[in-house]
TrEMBL record, chains A, B, C, D:
Annotated ranges, domain GFO/IDH/MocA-like oxidoreductase: 128-248
Protein name per Swiss-Prot or TrEMBL: Myo-inositol 2-dehydrogenase/D-chiro-inositol 1-dehydrogenase
Keywords of this entry: NAD, Oxidoreductase, Signal
EC number(s) from the headed UniProt entry: 1.1.1.18, 1.1.1.369
One Pfam family it belongs to: GFO_IDH_MocA_C3
EC category: oxidoreductase
Molecular function terms from GO: inositol 2-dehydrogenase (NAD+) activity; nucleotide binding
Family membership: Belongs to the Gfo/Idh/MocA family.
Domain Gfo/Idh/MocA-like oxidoreductase N-terminal: 3-120
Signal peptide feature range: 1-17
Amino acid sequence: MQRFALIGAGFIGTVHAANLTANPNVDFKLVYDLDTKRAATIAASFGAAVAHSVGEVFDDGAIDAVFIASSTDTHAEHVRRAADAGVAALCEKPIHLDLAQATETVAYAKERNTLAMVDFNRRFDRDYAELKRIVDSGEIGDVELIQLSSRGPSMPPLEYIAVSGGQMRDQAVHFFDLARWISGADPVEVFATGSTLAEPRLADYGDVDTSAVTLRLASGALVQIDCTRRTGYGYDERIEVLGSRGMAEARRHRNGNVSRYTAGKVTDDGLHPGWFERVKPTYAAALAAFVNALENGTPISPSLEDGLKAQAIAEAATRSLTSGRAEPILY
Amino acid sequence: MQRFALIGAGFIGTVHAANLTANPNVDFKLVYDLDTKRAATIAASFGAAVAHSVGEVFDDGAIDAVFIASSTDTHAEHVRRAADAGVAALCEKPIHLDLAQATETVAYAKERNTLAMVDFNRRFDRDYAELKRIVDSGEIGDVELIQLSSRGPSMPPLEYIAVSGGQMRDQAVHFFDLARWISGADPVEVFATGSTLAEPRLADYGDVDTSAVTLRLASGALVQIDCTRRTGYGYDERIEVLGSRGMAEARRHRNGNVSRYTAGKVTDDGLHPGWFERVKPTYAAALAAFVNALENGTPISPSLEDGLKAQAIAEAATRSLTSGRAEPILY
Amino acid sequence: MQRFALIGAGFIGTVHAANLTANPNVDFKLVYDLDTKRAATIAASFGAAVAHSVGEVFDDGAIDAVFIASSTDTHAEHVRRAADAGVAALCEKPIHLDLAQATETVAYAKERNTLAMVDFNRRFDRDYAELKRIVDSGEIGDVELIQLSSRGPSMPPLEYIAVSGGQMRDQAVHFFDLARWISGADPVEVFATGSTLAEPRLADYGDVDTSAVTLRLASGALVQIDCTRRTGYGYDERIEVLGSRGMAEARRHRNGNVSRYTAGKVTDDGLHPGWFERVKPTYAAALAAFVNALENGTPISPSLEDGLKAQAIAEAATRSLTSGRAEPILY
Amino acid sequence: MQRFALIGAGFIGTVHAANLTANPNVDFKLVYDLDTKRAATIAASFGAAVAHSVGEVFDDGAIDAVFIASSTDTHAEHVRRAADAGVAALCEKPIHLDLAQATETVAYAKERNTLAMVDFNRRFDRDYAELKRIVDSGEIGDVELIQLSSRGPSMPPLEYIAVSGGQMRDQAVHFFDLARWISGADPVEVFATGSTLAEPRLADYGDVDTSAVTLRLASGALVQIDCTRRTGYGYDERIEVLGSRGMAEARRHRNGNVSRYTAGKVTDDGLHPGWFERVKPTYAAALAAFVNALENGTPISPSLEDGLKAQAIAEAATRSLTSGRAEPILY
């Protein structure tokens, strides 16, 4: 049984709190948030106690592990506190929006042998895990081409965009990780081009809402990612992996299985309205994998280093957006 | 090269004329129709000559085979003429709406060793042939349950209904043949119930437009057929075959492969507007099989006897519609 | 907040216990099972207390509602106890395998104004609820034809079969309820025929494993149900509703969304291995509807009377299996 | 009625000959090929006469139009001869592999008011035409992102590769045309990167077999194309068009509609074995459009200028393959 604290009591913190409660190997002890009222709400619903300071979380030996789901600018600090306290950490991405600071934080944690995982939750999607299994089994031969679509349903608020780090660092980064994980290889080069089609004001932030990214692996295999912030038709992600002996596809998810037949048309249930409906089960699965690593010593995946590598790709992609050329990726 | 005459120059006669012309082993010589103008139109388009009497078709040794596509009440007479003349015959179903007369006609042709085939064209559908192949291969084990849907898009005119023989003899009969062919077994019993939901005036003809039929094979395997004359959403047929080791399904056909994604819905291209768009390729394939039998002595399928057996099921089903009980099928 | 007891601590009782715990408006107080050890296991996992007798469940005013998930032969007795105690009851189907005794039990509960619901959980399936909504909205016009498939993956043990009441009462009954519910009409007549194809020893129990059922509604609309106990390819249920202006289909569920492309074939994730994976979410939804009825006075559906009507259809269907004719349904 | 000559009697010439014969508004008069025996075979099968020289094709006023399906290096010469003779021309792509010479040829034909069309046959695919209709109707708003897959089943012979002009000019060019046509806009910039994964010897030809191309339209809309010469799983092409108000997709085509259900898997009919099975109907449709333009003065599409523009994109893409940067497209 692992004693957990949760830092961050917003929307996603509440999701994590429910998963911590439902996991049979977790004892959900403490919840901390700058906004004590929000922490108290979670504490009351899920039978945890409120921590009134970060110190209270880490300093009393009360917990084995911490789930860091606070605002992005606080992740690195909490990872360091966990490292200091000898507490394992499951941290939402990114460790720090600034790659150099993220790298230092990871080094800090590594020196202290901190058990830590970055929450790229899509690795725990049932279908993506099956894709990975197919690739690893050799069933489709060597990977030659991967297609990923990352498409959000509607523009996030500009306030969110302003602190997000931009489409590469905030949105595409999940798919950079998936491309690395599924192919089992580190991309060496990236080309990215983007536009502000959904929200022209993004240009003020040096950001884009629609982009096309191409990665090149050392083997010569290619990866294409298309990203949009606003589809208008729902949340849409899918992956195709072409190998030398076949292809595997993780198809779009639908929100139901009903078809309506009328003259000349068949109208099916469509896509999920938002990302959360699509990826919801992955959060519990990611937590379970982390807990399993703590309990049974299974390897941690994705590691903090995986988080850094995905960020490194995002940095190079961001450079390419303005340079107009393929950029080397510096890990 | 087989010299052919075509009897019947209506809509479907024109389809057959085009197929006769395109078949490399057919020399399309003659076309006959009571309406000489219609015959002349086909003759001009496809380079055949007009026959001005049935005698001209059969009596001069000008042809090797005849395609009988005239009105139903003339089929039996033309089959007998072909038998007398030693000419092979490809005949649209039914041989005769009256089963006794159909049976006599088949006996007559058999005594004269007439090469004859009844045009249950759905046996030549690519997907149904694949279903048959799967069943015959043993891939899904013994047949246990077959589901067939036979659904027309809109009510035929009442004048058509009046001479059609009713929904069992006119519409369901194709699926009785498919059930026999795919299962490789003769049903022993049939239950049918029907209603006049699309066109209440059908009741005046003792006919139904919506019906549910259950066949029982000697093995105990069961067959369900649903028939409607009017779907409102297009022409719809499909077949499922459940075996002891798996299931095979010939899915509905769509008229295209385009999907449109909008909020919460995906709208695909729908079904074909009518039966002809769905089954069109089967006519050329049926003709090719018949010509192959003539040229190379391959077995004829479906034979005239197959036609009689499907009719026998239709007769029993028609009895069941009013008796309210499962009726034995008398071959 | 509704205080609940659970009677029955087997596999499905454990499912209900988890749902009772997760429902925010339920206080899961007591669990009873003849096998006290099983009750204790559930009690420990979900924070309830063990009741050591049925009296302890009902007699102390400790609960507002009872979930009856014990063996079939005890349902009626527990419903009566609930009625005596003024406790609401959510009861697994059937109320009693003997329709006369079930009818008496329902009358008994009704006289005492017991709030009671029979757990035909498929009414709470997201897709079937959407079908119902489509039909009720008039979108596809008047119902004319309904197709339901009810197909289990593998033969249940003969000991189960022996006490199940047979395929009509045990398996088809769920689909009799769905047909009534979706069409909004009571069938008036039923024809059923069946065979023992998967397990010949079923004949010793007067039972069948493969059956085809046809219902007729007063409007003339028809319903076809195919049932098998053993598909070999997984758990398979689906529904099509044809109306006068279109068709709606609740398609088969797949256990994933991955496709593998190889030469000439596309291999998708298949069906669920068993019924539980397919219908699991319906149990929580059914419970939530019941709790909502208790809390807010919303109408109870399916009512005990709905349970009786589905049973009445099953009785007539069972008669038809041997009579070979369409049987009137006596409600 | 348009009198046609066909130049080129190879595999695709035979396809065109059959379509010329079947088109009711075409009188197929002459066929020419350097290999007179091949020409004679077509002439015999389709009732045309053999032309023994190019002069015989063009000089006697015997034809209204010519279908140029000879080897690539002769296209431009035949277009000029047609222009000289006042004969309309339907020409396989490309006009000339060298863009400068192609441009001169088009100018030459234009000065002589030659009615000419380049046979980008995919514009006549039923599904792609429907995509174009959807975009033009405004149904999905402004185009923002287009995804195209162009995937051949197996490596063509190296002799073919050697004279093909490379993957951009030979394969991707069809999709450059589709991107222009569907979006209604000329791309301004292209990035391409490629590898030799299927056939390392391609490197000797400066060619690639696997590539990822990104186009940028003046509006900022983006286009991604993935190309492979060898999938191993059949011929695969598909298009998605994301607009500001929805998405439209022309899905992969399957070679049949049969599904096989076994434990945990559903195996469907797969993709076509080769490009010809997939695009076969487009050739007759392209011819019909050309004939319609001749007969009724409807606009010609794709024009020779369309052919040049697609080539211009291919040139820039070929440059980008080695420059590693986005290249401007010079029309």
